Each structure stands twice: as structure tokens, then as C-alpha cells.
User: What shape does this take?
Amino acid sequence: MTLKYALLAAAGLTLANAAQAGLSFVQIASNPVVARTEAFNGIGGINNMAVGTSVTLGKLVSDRAGTVTFTYLGNESGYVDSFSMYLGGAGQTLLESNAVGTSVSASIGPGDLNFWFEGNTGKFAYNGGSWATGTSIGLITGATGSTVGNYDFILGYNDSAGASRLGDWDDFVVGVTFVSAVPEPETYAMMLLGLGAVGAMARRRKAAQAKTPS
Assistant: This one.
């Protein structure tokens, strides 16, 4: 490996680790796990899930600064639902009329992320805040198919489904990715190891050149 490519490899390890961790899904204190009363279906690239399968309810929390991206993955709903966020000093919205794959991004700091879903006109579910009756934010796990893409989290919104309070969490689905602005401690260690390896290679090369007759 040349010195140039060793440096690139060390930088690549740093970037790969910087994209990990920092964002977590925290269960709500009361009734954190519920069962579907309708099947999760109709979201391209995500496997269907049957009635009775469990859903973890909660919120997204960051423990550091970084950039978060929400990508619209689809919906299966009788209402006109939407996703909105107010992050980094600017408001952005995803709508059912957007093409699947449409994304919005923002810089964030530590704490609960400031976003919300809306369905059935005024029925809001705020991340880390209040949820209208029948609405909630759920973590979609064990569901990704081969075409959905790579996301740190997939969130499903359950809108207010009339008096029956049916729940499937496919009413508005988003994929979430997070890139930390502050590398993990392990990143620095790996970077130092990479630089150490580069230094060792340079010393060996210098020693080999010194032994080569001119």
C-alpha cells in the first residue's frame, strides 16, 4: 500500500466511525410496546408485518451535534398525512404528494429532535412531546427488505383512525440517517493507529532506500 492510499484508508476509517451512534430511539415511559391491529403494508422495499406484531413507541434523541436526514419512504393511509421538522432554525416538510425518496436535512444539537407528524387535520404526534389520541410514533424494526436503503432508523406514524383506533404504523413512513459532527473516541484511536501505520511504512521505505546502492 502506498503512503497516499494508507492516508486515504485512515481518513476513511475516521469518516465511517463518525457516521455511527449519537442518535437513539427512546421508548416512552407508559405503554412503550404495543401490538398492531392492522397489517403494516404498502411501503415499497419494506416487508409487510401482520396483525399482532409489536411496535415500540417513543422518540428520537441525539447526544451530540450532527446532521440528520429524513427520507420519505411512503404511506398507506386514508388521511392526508405529513411530516414536518423545525431543526437548525428552518422549517421543512415532507408530504404524501412528494416522490418516495424525497429527503430533508438539518443540523442539530443534543436533545429531542424537533419534528412531528400530522394526520386527519390537526392530529399531531410531536417527537418528545404530546400525541393526539390515536396517534403515535413507532420504530419499524425487523422490516427492511432489499430495496429500502440503509437507514439508522425507520419511523412509522400512526394517524387517528376513527373510533376504532386501528394501528398499523404505515400511515407515513420515514427513514432516518445521522452523521455526527464529533467523531467517537474510538475514531481518534483508529486514526492514531492509521497514522502510526503510515509512519512505520514511511520509516521502512526510508530505510530501504538508504540500503539501495546509488
Q: What stands out?
A: The helical segments are 3-18, 185-211. The mean pLDDT is 79. The first strand starts at residue 23 and ends at 27.
